[in-house]
């Protein structure tokens, strides 16, 4: 059985895919390959992992403010994630995502990290503010 | 969010497409932060100006705005970029041309291409308590912390939206109650010299992410040291403001810095400073072919000191030394004869360009040394070069010998 949790809309749209989760803050600038979605930040827990086509879940953003242009370019590139879920989204991600049409939500009504883990399948309806979670192995 | 009549008219398109799209972006940001209103401002500074960052889609976005007649309504300046407008640094012409289209589009909309990450050293100095809308994370920190002016970590497009409208949403650090310290950074071993301030910033940013740190027991800092401290914290973390007790305007005392906030304490010793340098150092060799100093861009004082260190010496064959600054400082360096000394030594005084936004990887370089932990942190992702990070003196030695020294050296006078 999937589980649906309400959340706040940051950038409208719909995206679904396998979840990739980190509890570390993430800065986009220079940190994701536009073609493959490979994470390049040195020392990040997700360094070398891929976010292309996935639902990318991290608590909050950090790093350079040019990141909003980087998010914009990534949102329109092959390496883009399907959607982003944050604890609290901030300006850099919000602006780049809204302008490129990348779905983003934050502030789930239940605890984010105990409900979603890497490998789960997640459907993000950012327009209507819901996240549907299928645990690993569950049919979606 | 409350809008004045003028703001409503901007949102409805009465002032044209520029203010209309600007209002759309600002209202979206205002919604995220539940801002009650917009604040009128007199300066915007826009980052994300590098072609590497914004890409062909960014050029298309900007040129579409130009075609629709968008113009900024307040003074709006531009950040550093991926090329040097005056000197060929060996990058492909195609990258230069794309980059110039970004600058031209912004200029067509009324922006000023300062091409600096340090607008606060190029004539744009907001007053204590004044609200502005700057992106460029290092400038945001300097603005809030050292100047006591008010700004949030705006994205490039939201600061440009502020330029198009003359407004920014009233949230975050524009509100005095959000500007008090949240974590005490107790300096046990004081950083010595510019690059060690960068190392402290690297460690603290990585550790506290986006809290407001209060530094206790820093040695008397230069503005350059405070600038690089903030740049590093905004890179490995998301710090937007710090206090340095006794040195920054909103922290005459510890009590003033924290107000009624409770806080935890983090200590900084030699171990944390050294860790700061090592966080992103990645190199299989100590033999360098590129040395870069100037992140944030060098001041005239720094160039003076570097020229003294280079005087009568020669950068090793096969090694390139970039000293990165803006056209303001470069002009003065020429007038004062520092440029001559640097050129005679084989160094290159650049303008406009930022190492991470530029293309050393396409000019054939393999291993780079720097004195900025921000450069070292971004290089693996932005340029893919081997990267070594240390003091300014170590970098200059690397430029002169081709080898990054094994032995650690603190800066004596930088």
With strands numbered from the N-terminus, the spatial order across the biggest sheet of chain A is 1-8-7-3-4-5-6-2
- Specify the helix fraction band of chain A: 10-25%
Structural category of chain A is alpha/beta
Q: Roughly how many Å is the radius of gyration of chain B? A: 21 Å
From the alpha carbons, calculate the radius of gyration of chain A and give it in angstroms. Answer: 13 Å
Low-confidence stretches of chain A: none
* Helix/strand/pairing category of chain B: alpha/beta
Shape of chain B: globular
Distance between the termini of chain A: 9 Å
- Note the run of SSEs of chain B as H and E: HHEEHEHEHHEEHEHEHEHEHEHHEEHEH
Sum this structure up briefly.
The complex is a heterodimer of chains A (about 140) and B (about 425). Chain A is of the alpha/beta class.
Task: Give a written overview of the molecule.
The complex is a heterodimer of chains A (140) and B (414). Chain A has helices spanning 67-75, 91-100, 112-115, and strands at 3-6, 8-11, 14-21, 55-57, 83-86, 104-106, 121-125, 130-134. Chain A is α/β, with parallel strands linked by helices and 140 residues long. Chain A has an 8-stranded mixed beta sheet. In chain A, strand 4, helix 1 (67-75) and strand 5 form a beta-alpha-beta unit. In chain A, helix 1 (67-75) packs parallel to helix 2. In chain A, 55% of the residues are buried. Chain B has 15 helices and 14 strands. Chain B is α/β, with parallel strands linked by helices and 414 residues long. The model of chain B has no long low-confidence stretch (mean pLDDT 97). The longest helix of chain B is centred in the N-terminal third of the chain and has 17 residues, at 51-67. The interface between A and B is large, with 37 and 46 residues.
């Amino acid at each position: 059985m999937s589980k649906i949790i309400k959340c706040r809309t940051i950038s409208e749209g719909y995206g679904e895919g396998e979840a990739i989760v980190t509890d570390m803050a993430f800065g986009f600038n220079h940190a994701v390959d536009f073609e493959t979605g490979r994470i390049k930040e040195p020392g990040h827990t997700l360094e070398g992992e891929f976010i292309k086509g996935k639902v990318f879940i991290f608590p909050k953003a950090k790093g350079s403010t040019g990141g909003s242009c980087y998010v914009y370019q990534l949102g329109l590139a092959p390496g883009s994630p399907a959607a982003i879920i944050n604890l609290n989204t901030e300006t850099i991600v919000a602006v780049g995502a809204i302008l490129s049409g990348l779905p983003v939500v934050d502030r789930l009504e239940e605890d984010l990290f105990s409900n979603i883990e890497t490998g789960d399948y997640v459907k993000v309806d950012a327009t209507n503010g819901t996240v549907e979670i299928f645990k690993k192995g569950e049919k979606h | 969010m409350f809008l004045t009549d003028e703001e409503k008219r901007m949102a409805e398109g009465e002032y044209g497409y520029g203010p209309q799209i600007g209002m759309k972006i600002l209202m979206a940001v205002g919604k995220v932060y539940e801002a009650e209103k917009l604040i009128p401002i007199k300066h915007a500074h826009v980052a994300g100006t590098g072609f590497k960052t914004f890409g062909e889609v960014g050029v298309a976005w900007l040129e579409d705005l130009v075609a629709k007649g968008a113009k900024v309504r307040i003074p709006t300046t531009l950040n550093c970029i991926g090329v040097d407008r005056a000197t060929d640094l060996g990058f492909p012409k195609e990258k230069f041309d794309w980059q110039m289209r970004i600058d031209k589009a912004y200029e067509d909309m009324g922006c000023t291409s300062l091409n600096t990450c340090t607008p606060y050293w190029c004539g744009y100095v907001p007053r204590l308590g004044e609200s502005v809308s700057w992106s460029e994370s290092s400038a945001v920190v300097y603005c809030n912390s050292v100047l006591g002016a008010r700004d949030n970590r705006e994205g490039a497009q939201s600061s440009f939206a502020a330029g198009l409208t003359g407004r920014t949403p009233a949230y975050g650090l524009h509100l005095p109650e959000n500007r008090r310290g949240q974590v005490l950074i107790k300096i046990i071993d004081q950083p010595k010299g510019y690059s060690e301030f960068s190392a402290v910033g690297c460690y603290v940013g990585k550790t506290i992410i986006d809290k407001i740190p209060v530094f206790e027991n820093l040695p008397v800092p230069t503005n350059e040291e405070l600038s690089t401290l903030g740049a590093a914290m905004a890179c490995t973390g998301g710090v937007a403001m710090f206090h340095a007790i006794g040195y920054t305007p909103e922290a005459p005392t510890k009590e003033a810095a924290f107000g009624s906030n409770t806080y935890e304490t983090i200590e900084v010793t030699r171990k944390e400073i050294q860790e700061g340098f090592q966080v992103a150092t990645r190199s299989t060799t100590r033999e360098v072919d590129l040395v870069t100093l100037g992140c944030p861009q060098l001041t005239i004082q720094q160039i003076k000191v570097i020229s003294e260190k280079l005087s009568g010496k020669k950068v090793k064959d096969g090694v390139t030394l970039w000293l990165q600054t803006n056209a303001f400082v470069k002009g003065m360096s020429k007038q004062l004869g520092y440029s001559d000394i640097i050129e005679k030594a084989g160094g290159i005084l650049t303008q406009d360009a930022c190492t991470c936004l530029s293309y050393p990887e396409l000019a054939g370089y393999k291993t780079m040394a720097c004195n900025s932990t921000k450069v070292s942190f971004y290089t693996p992702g932005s340029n893919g070069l081997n990267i070594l990070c240390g003091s300014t003196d170590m970098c200059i030695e690397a430029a002169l010998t081709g080898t990054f020294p094994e032995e650690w050296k603190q800066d004596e006078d930088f």
